[in-house]
Amino acid sequence: MTPPVSRRILGRVQVAAMLVAVLAPLAWMVLSSFKVSRDVMALPPQLVFTPTLDNYRELFLRTDFLHNTWNSVVVASGATLLGLLLGAPAAFAISWHRTTWPATLTLFARMAPGTLFLLPWFILFSQVDLIGTYTVLILTHGAITVPVALWTLLPYFDALPRALIESAQMDGCRPHAILIRIALPLVAPGLVVAAILCFVFTWNYFLFALALSGFDTKTAIVASFNFIGEGVTNWGALMAAATMIALPPLVLALLVQRQLVSGLSSGAVKG
After folding, report:
1. What are 233's strand-pairing partners?
2. For 5, left (φ over 0), alpha (ψ -120 to 50), or beta?
3. Residues 195, 84: Cα–Cα separation, whole Å
4. What radius of gyration, in Å, describes the C-alpha atoms of the chain?
5. Taking Cα atoms as reference points, which of 255, 271, 258, 103 lies closest to residue 189?
6. Is the pLDDT confidence value at 1 over 60?
7. For residues 141 and 76, is the Cβ–Cβ distance under 8 A?
8. N or C: which terminal CB in the chain sees fewer CB atoms within 10 Å?
9. For residue range 186-223, what is the model confidence (pLDDT) as tens digits?
């Protein structure tokens, strides 16, 4: 049945409002990256201006931003892999044993402010001389991504038929073999969603990267902080850095958008 005209108009207005809310800040950021600083701060905002590439020249020719971006790729990829390696077996075990308290515990830890863990984490890794290395950044961000991977994958494992798992057990299949050969292939869409969420969470995490990275391992989001000075901020370069930081997650989401939408909708139904 065709919905009434008023309902269709209302729906299109809602979609248009949502697109404006999502895309307007993004467009403002990209446009600002091609302006000089005084035009970025101009009121009312200037939609017609003379574009310049000076901000990107400063970003890539006068700073180590390219190296900082590579550091972000290494840390985010390593932390995502670590989060999935720990989160997927944990989600499978929690789902199989119907024990929710470990998952709830990880959720509480994830919701706690990062400053709560920062000092003990810093002292711990200072004792083993790992501050400023990729190892400490990957371990730290990996710990952050475990609850994300766990809670994303739980609905998928819960939806698996228990008879399938019990049949594998009766055939002598051990738990790790059941996980690798049977469960993980069946929850592949959930793995895609979990991987993207873990990557984005790690890519954008600022606090631990600021405190635990060194000069050679500084990530892009920490390096962008250099454009904010005491009383003076290079807004044009900062917007150029923000544009480059936002680009990889957007490209990643666009490349796997079909699997991402399928995985999110499946997780919502199964959850």
Report:
1. 228
2. alpha
3. 7
4. 23
5. 258
6. no
7. yes
8. N
9. 888 889 889 988 998 899 888 888 889 888 999 999 99
